[in-house]
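Design a sequence for this backbone.
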């Protein structure tokens, strides 16, 4: 089982990296179709980069859950991993920009991949630690579902705070 966990997690990283890269451009490639906006990056804000990490990780976790039915802690581990990835994007981005100033595009791209890698490595460690304490796995899934709703909602009703601001255009949302 331990080897299978590693393979599942490695595949998850690959799916997230590839899907997230495609989602970064999908909205523009689609001619800015509104129905694609909740799942794709619509601008260069930090929030949109978090969104393109979230959707592949969450959807992959749903598929993976069918194969990990014996793990009562599955959704608790996934909640922790996805949250770790989501938090690492703004932490790395704003730390780097705070120290160095404006970052080149290749650093921003690296931050996305590093955040995905950190999330899957963290999840793998939790999976390999046998069962972690997880009293409410349905609540963990509900939290992730709520985050999904926030990504959809804030695509159309975007708060005018820094994490949502496109640094290239100075605009918010669509």
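Sequence:
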């Amino acid at each position: 089982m331990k080897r299978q966990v590693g393979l599942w997690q490695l595949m998850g990283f690959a799916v997230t990296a590839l899907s997230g890269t495609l989602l970064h451009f999908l909205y523009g490639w689609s001619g800015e179709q509104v129905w694609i906006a909740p799942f794709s990056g619509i601008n260069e804000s930090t929030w949109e980069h978090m969104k393109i990490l979230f959707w592949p990780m969450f959807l992959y976790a749903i598929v993976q859950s069918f194969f990990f039915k014996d793990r009562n802690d599955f959704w608790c581990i996934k909640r922790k991993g996805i949250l770790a990835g989501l938090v690492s994007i703004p932490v790395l981005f704003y730390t780097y920009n705070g120290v160095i100033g404006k970052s080149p595009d290749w650093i921003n791209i690296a931050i996305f991949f590093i955040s995905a890698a950190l999330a899957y490595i963290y999840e793998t460690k939790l999976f390999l630690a046998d069962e972690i304490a997880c009293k409410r796995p349905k609540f963990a899934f509900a939290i992730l579902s709520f985050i999904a709703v926030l990504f959809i909602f804030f695509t159309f009703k975007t708060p005018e705070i820094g994490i949502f601001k496109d640094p290239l255009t100075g605009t918010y949302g669509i």
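The two ends are 44 Å apart (CA to CA).
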